[in-house]
């Protein structure tokens, strides 16, 4: 069984996965140290019309926005909002989707089928459309964005876990545990769940990137964190009317979203290769 050290070494040995891990570590560091790194922390929420739409310079590294706020500082503090939304939303989806997947995968009766049909209802509607509908109904706020993303993402975990559990249901070690009279809850928690952790971890990493992208889309549509919160999607939306003259006001938050989503996707691909030996990306001999 691979240890955390073995997994870390394999990730570092994969250039793309190492790059993804570096981006994620940088994101966490930026979110934690934002008040210390920001060049103008006082200008994140305050308006300064005299410095409105200034281009990048030594004073304002990424320029200023339409309110005169320092874009560099807003990007740093926006990382906190982005990371909070992703962690809480994906964590809540895990808490909902994994137990339902375990139950539906283990129980082949009407209960399992009923749970699957509920997840199918959510999957029948594109996630972004359903998230927009929920956010529009509840109103723009960070809490409502998290709720919308959690409600729309849990079926992916359910379907993944269900498929893995059904594949494990007839494995020899599971049938042996059943024959020995081991309680069902012990089999599921101590034997089945650890066996499906690898795909769950991979899905979580990729889901973090997708959740950040969806949250940014909601912010772009005005359904995310209300102003003057430094939310990356809203920052791009507010910069649209000043393009292409004030190109820097949209470029910085757009690059931030791109890098973070790419980082989680690269890390997810690397974790998939390390944790699932059945999958090798274009290199069977690896």
Provide tags for this entry:
single chain; 286 residues; MetI-like fold; 11 helices
Radius of gyration: 22 Å
Whole-number total of structural domains: 1
Element-by-element helix/strand order: HHHHHHHHHHH
Supply the number of helical segments. Answer: 11
**Name of the CATH superfamily:** MetI-like
Strand content: under 5%
CATH architecture heading? Orthogonal Bundle
Largest beta-sheet details = none
What is the 3D shape?
elongated
Q: What is the overall pLDDT average?
A: 84
CATH topology: MetI-like fold
Helix content: over 70%
Helix/strand-derived category reads: mainly alpha
| Unreliable stretches | 279-286
Query: Got a strand count?
Result: 0
Account of the 3D structure:
This protein has eleven helices and no strands. With about 290 residues, it is mainly alpha-helical. Helix 3 crosses helix 9 and helix 9 packs parallel to helix 10 (about 230-240). The protein is elongated, with a radius of gyration of 22 Å. It starts with a helix and ends in an 11-residue tail after the last helix. The model is unreliable at about 280-285 (pLDDT under 50).
Layout of secondary structure:
Blueprint: H1 4-13, H2 15-37, H3 71-106, H4 110-123, H5 127-138, H6 142-168, H7 172-179, H8 184-195, H9 197-220, H10 232-239, H11 248-275
